[in-house]
Amino acid sequence: MRKLLVAGNWKLNGSIAMTADLISEIIEGLPNEKNFDVAIFPPFVYLPLANTSVGNAIKYGGQTVSEHESGAYTGEISAAMLKELGCQMVLVGHSERRSYYKESSANIAKKFQAALKHGLTPVLCCGETLEQRESGVTEKVVADQINAVIELVGIEGFANAVIAYEPVWAIGTGKTASSEQAQEVHAFIRSLLSLKSDTIAHLVPILYGGSVKGSNAKELFSMQDIDGGLIGGASLTSEDFLAICQQADVLSS
Ligand code: 13P
Predict the structure, then answer these.
(1) Measuring CA to CA, which residue among 30, 36, 10, 31 is closest to residue 221?
(2) Which of 111, 130, 169, 203 is the most buried (most CB within 10 A)?
(3) Nearest to 60 by CA among 9, 103, 101, 16
(4) Is residue 82 in contact with ligand 1, taking CB distance under 6 Å?
(5) What atom of ligand 1 comes closest to residue 211's alpha carbon?
(6) pLDDT by residue (tens digit) across 138-176?
(7) What's the pLDDT at 99?
(8) Is residue 83 part of a domain?
(9) Residue 228 near ligand 1, beta carbon < 6 Å
(10) Is the beta carbon of 233 within 6 A of some atom in ligand 1?
(11) H or E element: which one contains 62?
(12) Closest of 194, 191, 227, 192 to residue 209, by C-alpha
């Protein structure tokens, strides 16, 4: 059985004070015994604070990672550095990285590989733009994004990985994919993986991301192939984030 995962991608938001408060409020608000996982992805500079304050209740990681080990790559952060800070996970290939920073699927595959090499669980983000959905190429776009990683690391690379399906048109827009629309793509992703390995296809958690909130989380997370959410805006206050965690708790108990 796959456990639900509720993950908060803080993007370019926060401060030292906000990180400290948000982490302690989340810990306080989570049930003592829970059967779902929680993760946060704060900006890099707050990871040391996460390291000293999250305890065992929450996993944490970076929002991206360098594909390089070390060297003259100004501004980059390596997987080994994240690991040293106690990160367990890292996002790779978020649509904002793909579009604003021109990360290609080939770059992203290398980042995924670097994460695995250092014992981090990569969370591979994929998803189509509105234009791509409207022209009927959603499955092709998502398949290309995932196949680029399979080509580099093999299907075995997904034995310790998470996929996040985030339709670009639903990110930060308040427009959520309907649970059926999301389920359709999640099932497609699982079938794509099962072409290579049925076992791994059934093991990989596939998160949905795009305007998830307390009011729609239950419906989304109860779909067969949706294993939780990658939350942007609603991960920035404990009230909103815990409302989503509460739905995951109801479904997991
Ligand atoms: P929103 O929840 O703000 O739509 O963002 C989703 C996202 O991009 C998470 O990575």
Answers:
(1) 36
(2) 111
(3) 9
(4) no
(5) 4
(6) 999 999 999 999 999 999 999 999 999 999 999 888 888
(7) 96
(8) no
(9) no
(10) yes
(11) strand 59-62
(12) 227
- Cβ–ligand 1 distance for 166 under 6 Å, the answer yes
Give the residue-averaged pLDDT of 203-232: 97
Structural domain count, the chain: 1
The CATH number covering residue 213 comes to 3.20.20.70
pLDDT digits (tens, 9 = 90+) for 40-87: 999 999 999 999 999 999 999 999 999 999 999 999 999 999 999 999
Q: Residue 240 has what DSSP assignment? A: H
Nearest ligand 1 atom, CA 91? 10
Within a domain: residue 200? Answer: yes
Task: Quote the pLDDT of residue 230.
Answer: 98
Segments forming the whole domain that contains residue 184: 104-236
Question: Atom 9 of ligand 1 has which residue's CA nearest to it?
Answer: 232
- Between CA 79 and CA 87, with CA 81 as vertex, the angle to 5 degrees is 75
162 within some domain: yes
Amino acid at site 75: G
Residues with a catalytic annotation lie at 94, 166
pLDDT tens digits along 1-52: 799 999 999 999 999 999 999 999 999 999 999 999 999 999 999 999 999 9
